Amino acid sequence: MSNPRVGFISLGCPKALVDSEQILTRLRGEGYQIAPNYQDSDLVIVNTCGFIDAAVEESLDSIGEALAENGRVIVTGCLGARQDEILARHPQVLKITGAHATDEVMDAVHEHLPPAHNPFIDLLPPQGVKLTPPHYAYLKISEGCNHRCTFCIIPSMRGDLVSRPIAEVLHEAETLAASGVKELLVVSQDTSAYGLDLRYQTGIWRGREWKSQFHDLAEALGELGIWVRMHYVYPYPHVDAVLPLMAAGKVLPYLDIPFQHASSRILKLMKRPAAAENNLERIQAWRKICPDLTIRSTFIVGFPGETEAEFQELLDFLTAAQLDRVGCFAYSPVRGAAANALPDPVPEAIQQERLARFMEHQAGISAARLQRRVGRIETVIIDEVAEEGAVARSQGDAPEIDGQVFIDGVTHLQVGQLVQVEIEEADEYDLWGRLV
Ligand code: SF4
């Protein structure tokens, strides 16, 4: 008898991707095959996203497509918190779970598609099943969030912060490194809050006691000798302690900090973490400790009540902060978010006009920041080798979201290899270099 086959659709952010990897790992561990299309699947799991309305629609459409093409569908992920909405559109789904619910998903799979006896389950790779290329992997350190940003419904979908104990995280990181992963991307909803719910409880790894806390996590991961990149960090004072580790080359000199705005009134309306901190001073202090620090951020323009003066304050912040990589969205209401009730929505035409001004303003800054690197020698990681040459990333570029470094005409390198290049050219996003 052949093994039961499960199709899998994974939507959403890196946190959802890690959930998908955990479910796929369990499925493979129990002998299920992962089928590449609906026709070859005995049932289909759809891991949904519910962050903004467009993502909700995409998730509902994906469930509909899986039902039409296959007929047997289990739904998991963020949108699972809105059962009624899913059932109203797709009453025939077999089961709905929330995010980060591997056990519940597996129970539903067992019920609707019992596993075959498989003596070869040990063939599962020890690092589990990864959806990322073999040379980098996401490391999820916690789930949920204690903040209540008014534009966000993640806490209502994923609950309060639940951190993984430090020893568990470090063992997973070590296994990933041993399996050939060259870069770890640390993700969560709020990486700087790591361990708060555990009261920073300690754990033993490599014979030493470590706290479940941001600094210890960074220091311990730094011992693995691979690239470690920190995402979703908030500018709290305790983050300062990680900067010397970056300056010493233990973890990448890179911080992904979603500032979202610069006006203190708007930040308060958004109920942002660290809203009362002086972000500009903090950035300047960090750059003194670690001059090569790359800061990536995202912003929202046209938040309810944002005045022209407050928007201008944001542009002035960009000029002063000289951030390296910046994404920006025009505010759009998310069903269930508290911000929907705020007065004075900004008309869409003004939102779009501000978005365009923001992007143009930042493009000049990003381009100038990259231009400063021309002539430098930098270590880059190879992501892809094609006929025209190699495509790499610098320490300042996270996969998928930042820029790339093109090394034209070089085809003998391996994916995941670290090489040195002299940067010869830059535009707004990408760099071009020559192998040294
Ligand atoms: S920090 Fe704010 S935006 Fe981020 S997950 Fe928590 S509530 Fe949402």
Brief summary of the model shown:
The protein has 436 residues and is of the alpha/beta class.
Describe this structure in words.
[4Fe-4S] cluster 1 binds at residues 13, 49, 78. It is built from 12 helices and 20 strands. By secondary structure, it is of the alpha/beta class. The strands form 6 sheets. It has a 5-stranded parallel beta sheet, with helices on both faces. The termini are far apart. The model is unreliable at 118-122 (pLDDT under 50). Iron/sulfur cluster (SF4) binds at residues 145, 147-149, 152, 154-155, 189-190, 273.
Detail the topology: elements first, then pairings.
Blueprint: E1 5-10, H1 14-29, E2 33-35, E3 43-48, H2 53-69, E4 73-77, H3 83-89, E5 95-96, H4 102-112, E6 136-140, E7 142-143, H5 154-158, E8 162-163, H6 166-178, E9 183-187, E10 202-205, E11 208-211, H7 214-222, E12 227-230, H8 243-247, E13 254-256, H9 264-270, H10 279-289, E14 294-301, H11 308-321, E15 325-330, H12 348-371, E16 377-385, E17 389-394, E18 405-408, E19 418-426, E20 431-435
Parallel strand pairs: 1-2, 1-3, 3-4, 4-5, 6-9, 9-12, 13-14, 14-15, 18-20
Antiparallel strand pairs: 7-8, 10-11, 16-17, 16-19, 17-18, 19-20
Helix pairs in contact: 1-4, 11-12
Residues 145, 147-149, 152, 154-155, 189-190, 273 line the site of iron/sulfur cluster.
